[in-house]
Design a protein that fits this description.
about 110 residues; alpha+beta; five-stranded antiparallel β-sheet; 5 helices; 5 strands; about 35% strand; globular
Length: about 110
């Protein structure tokens, strides 16, 4: 299992499972600014149109402590505090996506 974290614009992905068949599962989050702008439906539609399947989805709100644990790898970076504040500022939509080469397909969407 390869673990990779990348955040760009409205998207974040974290690969959670990969198989030899080319089918992968990846964790994706729609960040608070996109949720507040009512863009979740559009983003999910684009994900599905790209051939990925949403196999689990939940709207939630990260606490600052949860965001701190999730982004702990960045704790010594200058943007860490603002990242934690942003990610805990409002609701997020967390999804598990599945499909052939899901990580590469999701990167293309970004």
């Amino acid at each position: 299992v390869l673990i990779l974290v990348v955040g760009i614009g409205l998207f974040l992905f974290y690969q959670v499972k990969s198989s030899f068949s080319g089918t992968q599962q990846t964790l994706a989050m729609i960040k608070p600014d996109a949720v507040a702008a009512n863009q979740s439906g559009l983003i999910i539609s684009r994900i599905e149109e790209a051939g990925l399947q949403v196999i689990a989805m939940k709207m939630t709100r990260m606490t600052a402590a949860e965001a701190g644990r999730f982004y702990a790898v960045h704790q010594n970076r200058p943007f860490y505090s603002s990242l934690i504040e942003f990610m805990s500022s409002g609701p997020i939509v967390v999804m598990v996506l599945e499909g052939n080469n899901a990580v590469a397909v999701y990167r293309q969407l970004m």
